[in-house]
Amino acid sequence: MKGTMKKAIMILGGGAIGFANGFFGGGGGMLCVPLLEGPLGEPTKTAHATAMLIILPISLASAVTYALSGSVDVGLCVKVGIGVIAGGIAGALLLKKLNSTAVSIVFALIMAAAGIRMAFF
User: Fold this and answer.
1) Which of 23, 74, 83, 121 is the least buried, fewest Cβ under 10 Å from its Cβ?
2) What is the distance between the alpha carbons of residues 20 and 62, in angstroms, rounded to a whole number?
3) CA 101, CA 88: separation in Å to the nearest integer?
4) What is the C-alpha to C-alpha distance for residues 41 and 33, in angstroms, rounded to an integer?
5) pTM score, two decimals?
6) What three-state secondary structure class fits 70?
7) Residue whose C-alpha is closest to residue 6's, from 33, 30, 38, 32
């Protein structure tokens, strides 16, 4: 893929990821990982780890925007945040141990389950 096309995919894809994360309050990683793996050709584990770092500033910007508008329940954030931090550490450690095929299967199952839940429940 030519450099200009790759840059365009990164910029447009990044915009879509940022929009999705800001609009839905999350989910940018569900778009980011396939973008990194597919047209950008990153290995599975690299795509998942990179997506986390890409989502961090997007999530912070979205969170600040929501907080300034008074839409955040701080108590709920603290309570859920403890579990999110623990789960994030556990997930990162597990990612290092699983092979790429297993990571892809788990990711696909979670995406499918999320889609089914959103469509029907």
Assistant:
1) 121
2) 10
3) 20
4) 11
5) 0.77
6) coil
7) 38
Q: What is the count of structural domains for the chain?
A: 1
Structure tokens given for 17: 């990821």
Q: What tens digit of pLDDT does each residue of 59-101 get?
A: 888 888 989 999 999 899 999 999 999 999 999 999 999 999 9
| Percentage of the chain modeled with pLDDT above 70 | 99
CB contact at 8 A, 42 and 64: no
Residues spanned by the domain of 48: 3-120
Asked whether the beta carbons of 30 and 48 are under 8 A apart, the reply is: no
What six digits make up the tokens of 23?
Answer: 């609009």
Alpha helices of 70-99 — where are they, by DSSP H?
A: 74-97
The three-state (H, E, C) secondary structure of the chain, written as one string? CCHHHHHHHHHHHHHHHHHHHHHHCCCHHHHHHHHHHCCCCCCHHHHHHHHHHHHHHHHHHHHHHHHHCCCCCHHHHHHHHHHHHHHHHHHHHHHHHCCHHHHHHHHHHHHHHHHHHHHHC
Number of helices followed by number of strands (H, E) in the chain: 5, 0
